[in-house]
Amino acid sequence: MIRTRLHPDKQSAAQAIAREIADLIEIRSKSGKPTVLGLATGSTPLPLYAELIRLHREEGLSFRSVITFNLDEYEGLGPDHAQSYRYFMEANLFGHLDIPKSAIHIPDGRAADPAGECAAYEAAIRAAGGIDLQVLGIGRTGHIGFNEPPSAVDSRTRWVHLDEVTRKDNSVFFGDLAQVPHGALTMGVATILEARRVALLAFGETKADIVARAVKETPSAGCPATWLQRHQDCTFHLDAAAAKRL
Ligand code: PGA
Fold it and tell me: Phi and psi for 66 in degrees, rounded to 5?
């Protein structure tokens, strides 16, 4: 079952989730354990990342014991490309924190052997002890990460073909649809479901339909976010507009 939590606005949601992450880091680091975070890109998590940076700068929250795994990366885009997720994460989060560079993991969209890269990514998550908390957005296709429909419940980190709806939605960042890659590497649905806790964020009216489908439809590959109903500890953090069809 998916828990839904309504927030007055996205800033309040960002504050609540950032606090949850800070508590997790503080509790685990007290007993000498790392905190493994699964992270997302897109416009939705930006207020959360801004709040984590604020907690680091103003309240002394340290990320020295944090290990991160991003959900996905565009095929063919390297760290210097302004639309790569590696670049996005550095600009919007990692570049402002004290996280060790070696603790940051993002699939390599330019890997010569994508299947090998994906298998190594799964192995690195396992070696880190699994993901403690996975942050997710949701696409209008029902994708989580870049798991476009159809994505099986047992799918693993792999190369995927991007849906045209997703390419169009993301073309605002590229300025031109033709520049948006056709493929990506993404954690699979099974990879995401293995995270011990999941926090999905969705704000605004454009997400209302897909949020309602994810929460209410019978789980199926046709709407990958519905698989989250099988998770034991998954919360959708919403504003009123995104929650209006629930
Ligand atoms: P968005 O993307 O945050 O830019 O809306 C979400 C997603 O595609 O997962």
Answer: -100, 140
Q: What is the residue extent of each domain of the chain?
A: 2-238
Instruction: Select 2-238's CATH number: 3.40.50.150, 1.20.200.10, 3.40.50.1360, 3.30.470.20.
Output: 3.40.50.1360
Ligand 1 atom 2: residue of nearest CA? 42
pLDDT digits (tens, 9 = 90+) for 159-175: 999 999 999 999 999 99
Q: What digits encode the pLDDT tens for the residues 177-206? A: 999 999 999 999 999 999 999 999 999 999
CA of 173 to the centre of ligand 1 (A): 11
Ligand 1 lined by 142 (C-beta under 6 Å): no
Q: How many CB atoms lie within 10 A of CB 209?
A: 14
pTM to 2 decimal places: 0.98
User: How do residues 128-160 score in pLDDT, each as one tens digit?
Assistant: 999 999 999 999 999 999 999 999 999 999 999
Helix (H, G, I), strand (E, B) or coil at 142: coil
Residue carrying the six token digits 């897909």: 210
- Residue type present at position 78: G
Q: Which two tokens stand for residue 117?
A: 């890269």
Distance in angstroms (rounded) separating the CA atoms of residues 229 and 219: 7
